[in-house]
Each structure stands twice: as structure tokens, then as C-alpha cells.
């Protein structure tokens, strides 16, 4: 699972938080 990676990317502002039930918008 890349949950930890996604969290790190969110902190960096690379990946959007994404709403529950929806895929996270990349760039």
C-alpha cells in the first residue's frame, strides 16, 4: 500500500488530498 507515500506527497503539495470515495487527483 502506498498510503504512506501519498501522505508524504500531500505534504509536499504534489498530490491533492482527494475526497472520500474519489481517487486522489495527481498534479
Protein described:
It is built from 1 helix and no strands. It starts with a helix and ends in a 15-residue tail after the last helix. The mean pLDDT is 62. With 27 residues, it is an all-alpha fold.
In terms of DSSP E residues, the strand content is: under 5%
Report the end-to-end length measured between terminal Cα atoms: 20 Å
Give the topology string: H per helix, E per strand: H
Helix coverage percent of residues? Answer: 25-40%
Question: What is the overall silhouette?
Answer: flat
Structural class: mainly alpha
**Biggest sheet, open or closed, and with what strands and sense?**
none
Number of DSSP strand runs: 0
Give a brief rundown of this model.
It is built from one helix and no strands. The chain is mostly helical. It is flat, with a radius of gyration of 8 Å.
Quickly list its features.
27 residues; mainly alpha; 1 helix; flat
Write the layout of secondary structure elements.
Layout: H1 3-12
Amino acid at each position: 500500500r502506498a498510503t504512506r507515500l501519498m501522505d508524504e506527497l500531500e505534504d509536499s503539495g504534489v498530490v491533492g488530498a482527494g475526497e472520500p470515495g474519489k481517487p486522489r487527483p495527481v498534479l
